[in-house]
Specification:
Blueprint (H helix, E strand, L loop, with lengths): L1 E5 L8 E5 L9 E10 L2 H7 L16 E9 L11 E5 L12 E5 L3 E3 L6 H5 L2 H14 L7 E4 L4 H12 L5 E5 L2 H9 L7 E3 L5 H9 L3 E6 L3 H10 E9 L6 H9 L3 E4 L4 H4 L4 H15 L8 E5 L3 H12 L7 E5 L1
Parallel strand pairs: 8-9, 8-11, 9-10, 11-12, 12-13, 14-15
Antiparallel strand pairs: 1-2, 3-4, 3-6, 3-15, 4-5, 5-7
């Protein structure tokens, strides 16, 4: 099968198009013909050989996809040949998703939502699972104040919609351009609830607008934004860390305030062998989308299975030029 292979850590020039062996199917696995693969920041972090690279089990990167089942293991239940599915494969598949096929445990799959394209479906799993986990673990009450640093991406929009649908109204976020602002407002935030993260005195402005510190903050950007999030959080508040990119100053503020830190990690369940958590949560998201409760992320179709598509996607993510859209590659 054709696949985009990473030949060594470092520059995006290290990718090449190659032929690798089509994966064999184990008794509890299905073989999926991948139709679309989505890109995530962890992809380029792995490419660079950073901390996340220790999760790699294949020189083929890519952690989420949609496609069609073409083979079933003897122990597979609940799925059939020809069924359209989606999954966040993480590092649990036979290889990454920059490829034509993947073998994966059937409990990590969910049916593709009806009425949307393979490209839209591929953009759902990672961001949807992350947002749903954060939403459930936060347990926000209707009158709580929530700040989401950098909320215009796929995770942020999923989370905002989940919060809004559950009755939470006072949600603030940040944007750095008009497109990101429009995305946040279309997700349900009021104009005055979206602030420019480059604005001087951002912490003071947020606290003036709310009249009190936030009950919950969500860090989707890291760096200086994580510091802003920590500074506007109340004593004994809840800091939701989705990036693992907070600074030393961030950690000092949170410690001094006695704040609770919720680390959100999709692959944490794998450490306990609870792979069924993926499929069950994706099924929940599928039902939300089909019922119109939430909508799939907006996508930027980068092209077909090629080195140039992968290189361009990595460069856009690495240079923070995604503009609020999930980058997807057709296969």
């Amino acid at each position: 099968m054709k696949a985009i292979v990473l030949n060594g850590f470092g520059d995006s020039k290290n990718f090449s198009l190659g032929e690798i062996e089509k994966p064999a199917v184990k008794a509890d696995e299905v073989l999926v013909r991948i139709r679309a693969s989505a890109f995530n920041p962890i992809d380029y972090q792995m490419r660079l050989g950073l901390r996340e690279s220790r999760l790699m089990t294949s020189p083929v990167l890519g952690r989420e996809f949609s496609g069609v089942i073409v083979a079933l293991g003897a122990q597979v239940q609940g799925f059939s040949l020809g069924e359209e599915v989606m999954a966040a494969s993480g590092s649990r598949g036979s290889n990454g998703t920059y490829a034509q096929y993947i073998a994966i445990h059937y409990k990590m799959l969910a049916p593709k939502p009806a009425g949307i394209s393979f490209e839209q479906a591929a953009a759902i799993p990672s961001s949807g699972l992350t947002a749903l986990q954060a939403f459930k673990r936060m347990n926000v009450k209707v009158h709580d104040l929530v700040f989401i640093g950098g909320g215009s991406g796929a995770v942020g929009r999923f989370l905002i919609r989940l919060l809004k649908r559950s009755g939470v109204r006072t949600i603030f976020s940040t944007a750095g351009n008009e497109q990101s602002r429009n995305i946040l407002e279309s997700s349900g935030l009021l104009k005055e609830q979206v602030l420019d993260y480059r604005e001087s005195g951002l912490v003071q402005k947020l606290l003036e607008l709310t009249g009190r510190p936030f009950d919950f903050v969500v860090d989707l950007a890291g760096g200086s934004m994580s510091e802003t999030a920590a500074e506007v959080l109340k004593v004994n508040g809840t800091y939701v860390d989705i990036t693992f990119l907070g600074t030393e100053k961030t950690r000092e503020i949170l410690f001094d305030h006695g704040d609770l830190i919720l680390n959100i990690s999709n692959y944490a369940y794998v450490l306990e062998g609870k792979i069924e958590s993926y499929g069950l949560a994706l099924e929940e998201i599928r039902q939300m989308i089909e019922s119109g409760w939430i909508s799939p992320p907006e996508i930027h179709l980068i092209g077909g299975l090629s080195v140039s598509s992968v290189q361009k996607a990595h460069e856009l993510m690495e240079n923070n030029q995604v503009r609020g859209k999930k980058i997807v590659m057709s296969i």
